[in-house]
Amino acid sequence: MRSFRQYLLLFSKGLAMGAADVVPGVSGGTIAFVSGIYIELIDTIKSLNLQALRVLKSQGIAAAWRHINGNFLVVLLSGILTSLFSLAVVMQYLLVEHPLPLWSFFVGLIAGSVIYLLRQYHLMRWPELLLFVIGIVIAWAVSVAPSVQLEGTLVTMFFAGCIALCAMILPGISGSFILMLLGLYPVFIGAIADVQVDILLVFGLGGIIGLSMFSRLLSWMLAHYESLVIAMMCGFLVGSLNIIWPWKQVLESVVSNSGKTIVLSAQNLWPSQYTELVGMDAQTAMSVTAMLVGLILVLGLEYVGSRNQDSTL
After folding, report:
1. Alpha-carbon distance 7 to 16, whole Å?
2. How far is it, in rounded angstroms, from Cα 124 to Cα 223?
3. Which helix (DSSP H) or strand (DSSP E) does residue 217 occupy?
4. Tens of pLDDT along 24-36?
């Protein structure tokens, strides 16, 4: 049984997950992973099944609530939804007005995540190293995949929800970035900002169905091959740095129906190259500071998580 302080910390982790999921290229699953709630999250999602209905029928509401880890689920989802609806507009503003420090902050988060994972797991066997490399390749391939432009119909948003929410719980694979590759990110973020209930409900329904199936597979893999799964996830994190590197030169872009510019391809640059080729201030000092803040934040979450684990022993 968690204390009020632990539930407050869990809510704050939900806030962080929601903020991460708003930004293309950053995964809420990464935040769950580095904050120590990832396996519990996967097991909780997996528990939302027909067995829960059987427990409800035979043992009552209280038993069914415990079966689905209801307190954990409600508090975490409250944090995620609070963050999504309160930070969507803020993130849109930061992406337009201060993109370099924002992306740098998330680079720091990813770097801190890799450090955290390397401190927790010793991945030295050749199958683990192989899967680590495969994870890097997969995340890199996703990052350079060509974008498409799909129409934001309800049917399309349903299947987009299936794919994006499954990606959302994988560290290093961003559900928002998947939406960008599908050309549906402006539709999704606009639906949040404008509270378009029909699109959000269909997207959420698709996500629930996709998660219910994917979480079972992922939970089984973590139970039987934890170190191998962790190795691949570490690779996802490293490969995802190609997506969120702040200093980029846009090579190809399109303007969506909503008037927003969507980048189809870009190349990474060093800050000095960015100033020379793009002709804009690289904001090096501010961006490096933002990276350090992201790095310290993840390591701070690790420290708090380890303290909480020690206090429960």
Report:
1. 14
2. 20
3. helix 197-224
4. 656 777 778 777 7
CB atoms within 10 A of CB 13: 25
**170, 192, 178: which is closest to 143 by C-alpha?**
178
Residue 190 located in a structural domain: yes
Distances (CA, A) of 212 to 163, 258, 296: 12, 32, 34
Tokens in use for 281? 């201030």
Give the bridge partners for 267, in sequence order.
Answer: 249
| CB neighbour list of residue 100: distance below 8 Å, 6 or more residues apart | 246, 247, 282, 283, 286, 287
164 falls within a domain: yes
**Structural domain tally of the chain?**
1
Q: Are 198 and 213 in contact (CB under 8 A)?
A: no
Contact 79, 11 (CB under 8 A): yes
In a domain, 172, yes or no: yes
Residues 145-200: tens digit of each pLDDT: 666 667 778 888 898 888 887 877 777 666 777 777 777 777 887 787 777 888 88
Cα–Cα–Cα angle for 129, 27, 159, nearest 5°? 105
| Burial of 308 (C-beta count, 10 Å sphere; 0-12/13-18/19+) | middle
DSSP reduced 3-state for 81: helix
Report if residue 149 sits inside a domain. yes
DSSP state of 255: E
Per the structure, the complete domain to which residue 44 belongs is given by: 4-243+250-297
How far, in Å, CA of 222 to CA of 243, rounded? 26
pTM: 0.67
